[in-house]
Amino acid sequence: MSIRRPIVFFLCLFWALITLFPLYWTVITAFKPPPAVNRGPTYLPFIDFQPTLQAWIDAFSGIRGDFWQPLWNSTVIGISATVLSVALGSMAAYALARYEFRVKLGAGLVFFGLALGGYLLFHYPLEFSRAQAMGLAFLVALPSCLIANRLPLPGPILGNKDVLFWFVSQRAFPPIVTAFSLYLMYSEIGREGLRLLDTYLGMVLCYTAFSIPIVVWLMRDFFAALPVEVEEAALVDDVPRWRIFIEIVCPMAAPGLIATSLITLAFVWNEFLFALLLTTSRWQTLPILLSGQNSYRGDEWWAISVAALFAIIPMMVVAMVLARLMRSGLTIGGIR
Amino acid sequence: MRDPFKYIFIWPAFLVVLMVGLFPLIYSLTVSFMSMRLVPPRPPRFVGLENYVDLLASDRFWDTIGTTLFVVIVSVTIQYVVGFAVALALHAKVPGERLFRVVFLFPMLMAPIAVALVGRMLFHSTVGPVNHFFTFLGFPNLPFLTDADWAIATIIAVEVWQWTPFVILLMLAGLQSLPQDVYEAADLENASAWQKFWGITFPMLLPVSAAVVFIRIIEAFKIMDTVFVLTGGGPGTSTETLTLFAYQEGFKKFNLGYTSALSFLFLLTVILFGIVYLVLIRPQVEKRI
After folding, report:
1. Closest Cα of chain B to A163: distance in Å?
2. Given B3, B86, B103, which is nearest A11 (Cβ)?
3. Does the predicted model carry a pTM greater than 0.95?
C-alpha cells in the first residue's frame, strides 16, 4: 500500500492540474495586454508579461458591447426560473413522496390522441389559428383524460414511479426537438398578440418547465428520506397539509432545497440552445453574448477571457457552496 | 386518503411541463409532414413522408449521425475510464481529498459555451499553449481546429475535460456505499488489489456504472454548444453534430418542415441507441447482482 500511495496521489494531482490549467489560463489572459497574447503563449504574470486592467476597463465601460444587459438578464431570468421551478417542483416531489398516484395508461393515451386530433380538427377543417386550435384542443383533452381515468379502462395502471419517470424523461429529449418546436409555438402565440419570443415571460416559462423535472427528481429523494413521524404527529393535531409542508417539511429539507436551487440555477445560467433560439436582442443571456464574442469581433482573447469569467465566476461560487453542503453529509440524487 | 391536497400539489408542475413540453411537440410533429418554409415564404403544403425520405436519402444526415455517435461513444468511454480511475484514487483517501473534490466540481458547473471558448483559445494554432507544448516536445504545429480529424479529437478532449468530473462524483458515491465486510473477507484470503478490483469493486459497481454511462450518453447526444463555438461544424461539415445540423437547417434556411422531421429522426436515434444500450447492459447487470 505504501508504494502505491504516491502514484494514487499523483493521479489525482495530474487530473486536478488538467482541470485547473484552462481556468488559470483564462484568468491570466484576462489581464494580458494584447501583445502578450498575440506574440505567442506567455505563462507567468510580471515575468512573461506586465498585467493590465485594460480589458476589464473596456468591458465595464461598454466599449465591446453591452455586458450589463446580458448579465442582468441572466441574473433575473436565472433567479426567477429557479424560484418558480423549485417551488412548483418540490411541491410535486412532496406529493410523489407522500401520496400514492394511480394513472391509467389509457387515460394518458386519450389525452395524447385528443390533443393531437383536436389540434388538427380545430386548425384545418375549422380554420382556427394554430395557437387557438392548440388551446382549444388542450381544453378538450384535459377534462376527457380526467374522466377517462375514472372509467374502467383496460391496460396497465401507472404508479408514482411512472409519474416520476415521465417527469425525468422530459430531460432525456434532445433539446433541439423541444427548443425548435417551442420557437414555432412562441411565434404562433406571438401572432395572437401575446409576445413570448425575446421576452422575460417566455424565457422564464421555458426554463421553469425544463428545470421542474430535475427538481422533482432530486427533491423526491430528499423528501422520501425525511422521517414521516413528525408529519403524522402534526396531522393528528389537525394541522393543514400546506402548513405542514411549509413550516415543517421545507425547513427539514433546507440543505436539499438549497442544493437543488443551486443546480437549477447553474442549469439556467449556462443554458445556450433555448436562449439562442428564443431570444433576439433585449433578453439575450450571457452564453449568447459569449458566443457572439467569438464570431463578430475576431479573436481578441483578452476581452473574450473577461467575458468568459463573467459567466464562470458565479458558478465557481456555486461549486464551492455545493462542495460545502456535500461535505456536511448531504446526498444529492445519490451523490455524497 | 382522498386528500385534495395531493392534486393541488402536483398539478401546477404537471401542467407547466405538459404545456411547454408536449404541445410544441404535437405542433412540430404535424409540421414535420409538411413543406413549410419561411424564406422564401410559401403556403404550407402537406407532403406526407417526403421530409423524412429526403433526410434518410441525404449523405449529410448520415454523416452527422456518424459524427455524433463517434463523439458520444469515444468521449463517454474516456470519461468513464478516467473518471472511475480518479474516483478510485480519491476513495483511497489521498491527502488533499477535500480540495480535489471542489476542483473536480468546477468544470461541470461551467457554461459549455465558456468552456468551448477557453478551448478555442488553448488549442489556437499560434497563441495557444497546447500547440506551444507540442512544439516544445518536437511535434510540428498541429491543426487542432482546422483539420477534420484533429477537430473531432479536440471536441472530444473538451467534452472529456468538462464531464469526467461528473463520472468521478457519481462513481465516488458508489464506492462509498460499498459494504466494507466483503473487503475484509478478501483481505483474509490475501487477495491482491487487482483481484479485489475485478472480483468485488467492479462487479458491485456495475449498476452504478450502467446508470452513469447512460446519463452521460443521453447528455452527450445533445452536444451543440461546444461544437458551435469550437469549429462551427467545420471544416466543411466534418464536425457537424445532429443538434447543430438541425439548427443550421432551421435557423439559417428556415426550412421548418425539414427541421421538424430531422428533430424527430434525432429523437428516434436517441431512443434506439438507448434501447440497444439497455438491452446490452441489462443481462450484465442482472447477472452480477
Report:
1. 10
2. B86
3. no
